[in-house]
Write a structure and sequence with these properties.
Elements (H helix, E strand, L loop, with lengths): L1 H16 L1 E4 L4 E7 L2 E11 L2 E10 L23 E3 L6 E2 L3 H10 L6 E2 L4 E7 L8 E7 L15 H4 L4 E5 L4 H5 L11 H16 L5 E11 L1 H11 L9 E5 L18 H9 L7 H10 L2 H10 L24 H7 L6 E7 L4 H8 L8 H12 L9 H9 L9 H30 L3 E7 L15 H6 L2 H4 L8 H20 L3 E2 L4 E2 L9 E7 L5 E7 L3 H31 L20 H38 L13
Parallel strand pairs: 3-5, 6-7, 9-10, 9-11, 11-12, 12-13, 13-14, 14-17
Antiparallel strand pairs: 1-2, 2-3, 3-4, 4-8, 8-10, 15-16, 17-18
Helix pairs in contact: 11-14, 14-18
Length: about 650
């Protein structure tokens, strides 16, 4: 009875506060929130279909000054004033490459600020204002370093009778710098996300949204983020369903397991601000005192050295937001949702493979190219002896000389995509289905006839989900077949958000549940006539998923056991150290001197090889940067961007 009375009260309040004001330029609308009245506007999206937009609603205090490198605090109210929320808020501070990434999605938008913790609300206007609507919160990608919430234009998804929320969270060092202790524990960006979820939970009733019917959806680094919220105790009760697109909390790049102040990027960032002190408390005081404009300038320019493939500043296992590594939490503890949809695109690794491959394509034979490429990429692979050979055995069988440049590039793309995105995505699905979570998997391989690159890259599905083929996009062309695919994607997402079952009501199609006994997934592609097509199939790349998710971990465990037994045997073997000449070693080191000499030589050679490799990869990065400065890529950015 109390709950019904509360609903009636909030509906009446929402109705009274939904005051429409006509203007020659825009139709404005006001709504109450827990912090005061906000004024948005009504936009005609399609003929006779309107969406209310509230852009730049503060969900936390500005994280500036003494709140820099601190958890987010609830926003201050604005009393009896009305807060205008009609313009997009600035993106959080990021490098110039991040701004270019944003401009690809939002042409001509380039505003960034340290004061950036704002969200955007997209609510459909319906004939029945009493309708209570489901809610989805979208977490943007960008390698935890780039992007902004408004890159996902949510109006078309809102027209599916859903309230859509997008938001910004702190990025790069401001969001994820960690000293490994309580002074700068890290995960500020993840706590921002929780603050946004909590704002929605507590305020969405003012928009006729259902606070007990919330889905979180994330892409790439946003996908990894929603996977982390799935297992974090701090996120419990803030949502009911999860959509994870092309990103997983179980990916090696998603989380730092052991925070370490000796991290090179940590030191470079602090050094650039003249804050590299011995004490982390001194470091924190120094960081808080930095002039905002100087900080913005450093992040815009000096962070361009960030990794081309893996993100630099990422979430950490801090004992608070993450009590343990995500896989252990996912396997051993209850998760925070019971419906889970996830999937990937066909060419997840294409962009990164292109950057690695480009400078080599005219210089070497096939075998030399493959070995050079893998030598550059091996630093991102698991630290397992023989890993490069094992990867090549699974993806590029001998002889290599028979492989064309196109084939090498395609195989490298598959290796990168499977390791970074696809394999950890399917590992998440396997673990969750074993816990009786309802899991759905899709594989997006639809290729537009107008795509000259013939690549279904990382993030390709987002444009269809945002309805770009239906309303147009400045940087991409679409045809009628693309418009059909966009309608399919909108309907699949909307039905999952509403009902927990992704389906197409027009032809009675639905995605079957994924289980160990029935490992099915939805293939979203073109039929033989190039038209939009979705069908259920089974056993997605079983050998390659088994390689990454089972064989490689087993290789690591065997290596660990061998090394442990070797260390144990050398520690227990009696050695007469008195006959060894003094060479500066501790008396506890019982291994013979010649072995140390050999090891030293190997280390020196390894360091030299590493230096050569880093210089080689650095040169390619500079070449790519020069190319980027003189042209705009037509492809969607891969792991470092829409991650």
């Amino acid at each position: 009875m109390y709950k019904k009375t509360a609903w009636l009260y909030y509906w009446l309040l929402a109705s009274l506060m939904s005051l429409v004001v006509n203007s020659e330029e825009k139709i404005f609308i006001k709504r109450q929130t827990n912090y005061g009245v906000i004024q948005g506007f009504i936009e005609n999206i399609r003929v006779g279909r309107h969406v209310e937009k509230y852009l730049g609603v503060p969900y936390a205090k500005p994280p500036i000054g003494d709140l820099r490198f601190e958890p987010p605090q609830p926003p201050r109210g604005w009393g009896r004033n009305t807060l205008d929320t009609v313009d997009l808020p600035p993106a959080c501070l990021q490098s110039f490459s991040g701004i270019n990434y944003i401009e690809y999605h939002i042409p001509s938008f380039n505003k960034t600020s340290e004061d950036c913790l704002y969200l955007n609300v997209y609510r459909p206007q319906l004939d029945d204002p009493r309708r209570i609507l489901p809610v989805v919160i979208f977490v943007h990608g960008g390698s935890y370093q780039q992007g902004m919430g408004a890159m996902f234009e949510a109006s078309l998804l809102a027209l599916e009778e859903i309230i859509v929320i997008t938001f910004n969270y702190r990025l790069g060092p401001l969001g994820f710098l960690s000293s490994g202790n309580s002074d700068i524990p890290g995960n500020f960006g993840m706590l921002d996300q929780i603050a946004a979820f909590r704002w929605v939970k507590e305020n969405i009733v003012h928009f006729s949204g259902d606070p007990d019917h919330i889905t979180i959806d994330g892409h790439s680094a946003g996908g990894a983020s929603v996977g982390l919220h799935l297992v974090s105790p701090l996120s419990k009760g803030l949502f009911n369903r999860v959509i994870q697109q092309s990103g997983s909390a179980l990916a090696h790049w998603a989380v730092k397991k052991y925070p370490d102040r000796s991290n090179l990027h940590y030191k470079i960032f602090l050094s650039s601000l003249r804050c590299l002190h011995n004490s982390t408390s001194e470091i924190k005081r120094c960081l808080k005192s930095i002039d905002p404009e100087r900080l913005k300038r450093i992040i815009l320019t000096d962070l361009e050295w960030s990794s081309e493939v893996s993100p630099v500043f990422i979430p950490v296992v801090d004992g608070y937001f993450l009590p343990d590594i995500p896989e252990k939490l996912m396997r051993s503890r209850p998760v925070n949702a019971q419906q889970f949809m996830t999937g990937t695109t066909r060419d997840e690794g294409a962009s990164a493979a292109g950057r690695l491959f480009g400078p080599l394509k005219h210089n070497h034979g096939s075998t030399e190219k493959i070995l050079s490429l893998m030598n550059c990429f091996r630093g991102f692979l698991p630290r397992v002896r023989g890993i490069v050979g094992s990867v090549l055995e699974n993806y590029m069988p001998l002889p290599y000389d028979s492989l064309s440049d196109g084939a090498i590039r395609q195989k490298l793309s598959e290796i990168v995509g499977d390791y970074f995105i696809t394999a950890p995505t399917h590992l998440s699905a396997d673990i969750l289905q074993s816990k009786n979570v309802t899991v759905y998997i899709y594989y997006f391989s639809y290729l537009s006839a107008l795509d000259q690159d013939h690549i279904v890259s990382h993030g390709s599905e987002l444009f269809y989900l945002a309805g770009a083929p239906l309303v147009g996009h400045k940087n991409i062309r679409f045809d009628n077949k693309d418009r059909t695919m966009s309608r399919y994607m909108l309907k699949l997402w909307a039905t999952f958000i509403k009902l927990g079952l992704p389906s197409l009501s027009l032809n009675n199609f639905y995605i079957d549940r994924y289980t160990a006994e029935k490992p099915v997934y939805a293939q979203i592609n073109n039929n033989q006539w190039g038209e939009s097509h979705i069908e259920m199939t089974t056993n997605f790349k079983p050998e390659k998923m088994n390689f990454w998710n089972r064989k490689v971990p087993e290789m690591y465990r065997r290596q660990y056991r061998r090394d442990f037994l070797y260390m144990d045997s050398t520690a227990t073997t009696p050695v007469d150290t008195r006959r060894q000449p003094y060479n500066g070693r501790s008396g506890n080191d019982l291994r013979p001197f010649p072995a140390w000499g050999l090891m030293t030589a190997c280390i020196v050679l390894s360091v030299l090889l590493l230096i050569v490799t880093v210089l080689y990869c650095r040169t390619k990065s500079l070449v790519r940067k020069l190319i980027r400065q003189n042209s705009v890529s037509s492809g969607t950015r891969m792991i470092n961007h829409v991650t």
